[in-house]
Design brief:
single chain; 469 residues; Immunoglobulin-like; 3 domains; 10 helices; AlgX/AlgJ SGNH hydrolase-like domain-containing protein
């Protein structure tokens, strides 16, 4: 009898210990359940204040058989109780799936700063002869609120206030909230289950074709969206997006009948982007060389949807909007677009993606030609006057300076003006820019104009460019 008890105790302890024995200690592991990086052992001791929390997270993330246990539990809850147990998704009514619905954080100050930033962005573009359109994309819960979970109270205060400010400031914008609310009367514009965070390809066609129409109002070379360029293909989704939660749902994809796009890789590894927001695409349309050049700042609503807009332009460059758009001068200096399209989604319009302090401190760089009667003065000291051209595709020029604070600066290269923001690194001030090497192949010198903060004085500094040997 004692042997049986001992056996049961050993068996019980073994079952408890087994997941610990099979813990996953591999580095840089992405969870197949919730599509996120698992905590690495080295991260536990990065911050002593969070060591206990990170240790608990490490054990929870890495314990043996985690994936199997979570899958089994989630599947059982789904089958037996029609309840979704998932870190990113939750059920609504009639089987609809939504992103986890947080408590609404009403941030009116953000909407004010964000709308002012958009207005300055529009002014910056228009002052340089660049057309501009801002597009506001809706969340699934905005288009299909009737399927939200019972008892969930959805607030539209942020969305309503932003829309009010866009109108009040006279910004050229398109609300695809209105577009898709109308479109849903005749088509399914978000899949009920598969992708809770984004429109499906049918919804993208409605939204992007509306953008194209508005862009054509700005430049008649754009034309209109042509659905006949695409072939409908039915596609079966067997799991939720970025998850292994099982579903069985068919959606419609639209494939180009003729692919006439050339993907440009030349600058992808050199273009500066925020380390967490690195989406990038660059296409040349070989069948539309006379079309305008379009620079897009977009989020994940545009992922794999560029095919719906590239046909109307000669060249399309897409930069991940979060954080990066706050440095729009850098990208415009490089690409020299005819049109800029900035789009964002209502639920990503937050201080995390567009930091409030950065927007608050950002100044609008005026067109250099708007200044008259400036007095030349000694404003700064530039000790480094010679810069190397890069041997790759882009040349980065960083110009440290000392002296009084300046508002901004301008580089004049081959009669082209580049707008330069003032940057600070550990109390060291500098201005800089990037330029495509082909533009400066035969250029040996360029000028920098530093503008005083009172906008009454300037200093011209001649600098040298040499080949990197």
């Amino acid at each position: 009898m004692k042997k049986i008890y001992k056996f049961k105790i050993i068996l019980f302890l073994g079952i408890i210990a087994l997941p610990l024995v099979f813990m996953n200690f591999e580095k840089d592991v992405v969870s197949e359940i919730d599509n996120r990086m698992l905590v690495d052992f080295d991260e536990i001791f990065d911050d002593s204040d969070e060591a206990i929390y990170k240790f608990e997270s490490f054990v929870n993330d890495r314990i043996g058989f985690r994936s199997r246990m979570v899958k089994s539990y989630s599947r059982g809850m789904d089958i037996l109780l029609d309840e979704m147990v998932h870190p990113n998704y939750q059920y609504g009514k009639d089987g609809y799936v939504y992103l986890k619905l947080p408590e609404t954080n009403v941030d009116l100050r953000f909407q004010e700063l964000f709308s002012s930033f958009i207005k300055d962005f529009e002014t910056y573009c228009n002052d340089r002869g660049i057309k501009f359109l801002y597009t506001l994309e809706p969340s699934k819960s905005t288009i299909y609120p009737e399927y939200l979970p019972e008892g969930y109270i959805r607030s539209t205060e942020n969305l309503d206030y932003l829309t009010e400010l866009l109108n009040e400031k006279g910004i050229n914008y398109l609300s695809n909230v209105d577009t898709l609310l109308k479109a849903k009367e005749e088509a399914q514009v978000f899949d009920p289950k598969y992708d809770a965070g984004h429109w499906n390809e049918t919804g993208a066609i409605y939204g992007i074709s509306a953008m194209i129409d508005r862009l054509n109002d700005l430049d008649s070379r754009v034309g209109s969206f042509d659905i006949n360029r695409f072939e409908q293909v039915q596609y079966l989704n067997t799991t939720l997006m970025s998850s292994d939660f099982p579903i069985n749902e068919t959606t419609t994809h639209y494939e180009l009948k003729e692919y006439n796009l050339e993907y440009i890789e030349d600058y992808e590894n050199e273009i500066r982007r925020h380390e967490d927001f690195r989406y990038y695409n660059h296409y040349v349309n070989t069948t539309n060389p006379e079309g305008p050049k379009l620079l897009i700042f977009a989020g994940s609503y545009f992922n794999n949807k560029e095919k719906f807009i590239t046909g109307n332009f000669s060249e399309v460059m897409k930069i991940h909007n979060y954080r990066n758009v706050l440095d729009y001068e850098y990208y415009i200096n490089i690409y020299q677009p005819d049109i800029v399209l900035f789009e964002s989604t209502e639920y990503t319009n937050t201080g995390y993606h567009y930091p409030k302090k950065t927007m608050e401190n950002k100044t609008l760089i005026k067109n250099i030609n708007s200044y008259e009667n400036l007095k030349e003065d000694d404003i700064v000291e530039v000790k480094e006057t010679t810069f190397n051209k890069s041997s790759t595709n882009l040349t980065d020029v960083v110009i440290p300076y000392e002296g009084e604070d300046v508002l901004n600066a301008y580089a004049v290269i081959n009669e082209r003006v580049l707008d330069l923001q003032v940057k600070m690194v550990e109390d060291n001030k500098y201005v800089g820019f990037s330029i495509i090497n082909e533009e400066i192949a035969d250029t040996d010198t360029f000028d920098i104009y530093f503008l005083s903060k009172d906008e009454e004085r300037y200093e011209k500094v001649e600098l040298e460019l040499i080949n990197n040997e």
